[in-house]
Give the backbone structure.
Amino acid sequence: MMRARIVALLAACALVVFAGCAKKKVLSLADLPPETTLFVQGPVATVPDRVHLYWFGSDPDGEIVGFELRFKNPAAPADTQWAFTTRSDSVFSIFAPSGLAMPVFEVRAVDDKGLRDPTPAREDFSFSNAAPTVGFMQGFRTTDTTYASATLTWAGNDPDGDAGAMRFEVGLDTIPAALHLVAGNSFTFDTTDFKIGATYATTRPRQAYLRAIDAGGRLSPWDSVRWVVRAPSTSPGAGMPAPHPRLLLIDDVPATNPANVRADTMWLNNVTRDLPAGSFSLLKLEVTQPFRSPKDVLQTFRQFDAVIWYRDIQPDFSTLLNVNQDAIAAYLDGGGKFLIEGRNLIDGLGSSGPLRGDWVTRYLGSTDLILSPITGRVDSTVAWNITAGFVDSLDANNPAVLFNIYLRSPAYQDSLWNRSNQGGLRGFEVLDTNYVALWAADSALSPRVPRSIPIAVTVPVPANPPGPGRIIVFTLPIRVANSYFNLPRYLGKVFHQMGLDGPEPPAPAFIAPRAVAARAPVAVRPVASRPPVAVRQRR
């Protein structure tokens, strides 16, 4: 009996032991690898080089944490490395530079225990890749020229892919030398691209080349465009080297304006007097406009020591100045010297202008623009007028006396006499009187007010301490202020201050501006805030 009980107990223990062993065996069988399924929408026959693939995985005893995928493509050996992703679909651009590729795509699931599908899902594909196309957007007229900077734009198309993923090779003069790999639809050639042997080339035709590369590596045919690139300076004689480029003179007066010839004559006469032959270049914006981007402006200006941009009596808004003003500011900040002459130059209350109002405080050595009253109204404006002469009705003793409009210059120790009716001037609340290039005497402007108003300034950049750059702004056409016949002498002093000295530099030398910190700030005093002046005694 006892023996039977012992046998039964042993049998029960054996069952427990074997049951325990069976449980451990089930645990080891639970670490099963995942399975992966791959599919593609549409036919699997020849498809475009840009394809959308989908996949998913399953794990009988766990969770899928991601996938590893790769292409076995003889045209792109690097793609044979496994790449991990948590996505279950993606759009691929297959590298097929010859127009046809037959890679194998593989994907394998990875579970939460790090096991990978030992039999990855795979698909053999046949990809076609149509060639992209590209062409320059703008051509050049026979009169169009640039200096050693050019911004070119183009439009490209990928008939079976993503046009936004295309890249472009752009080169100058030769194929395939000096190629730039570019994303986007525009490129500005650097000034160095135009140089030959580290020097500016003589004026000659240049040719740019362009081709597209799609995401699959297929190349388009070449497109090209040809235009004339001007040298910033020219040789004064056969066999003589070109001098250093000193000045870019920009004529912004249309030929339809009767002042065009007179303005050119005035500036050229004074420039040729002070600068060596070939050291300056005249750019007539009506004939050719080389600035297709702000970078063109900056790179072109940097080829010269100084730039003079004159608009003479043109009253209209200059869009070209407006869109490129930040490039001009960068030229000044880099030590360039810039003279701008014209009416309605600065934007402000009651009168628009191409240069933003912050130029007044950033570069023009002033706290604000002086406001002009509007006759018969309480309003005011930044615009002032100047007349050829006036009957001084403010003088009670001699109300019918005609007084000349004279303009004093503390900066150049000289004076000019105006005899032309012009509007759109600006007045500056200067921080230092040495910044004043022309100062309209009291009652010289219209409407007449009993104070002198600076209408032209010359300011170093930076102003304090004085920097190597300089900006000179004339808000009236100085050609019409030559009634003393001393304009050549006056401009000689202006050129001397800009470093544009000829064989006999004009004198006297420029008196350096006083440091702004040494002066108390000048309070802005809008004229419009004062009551009208009825009578003024002239002594």
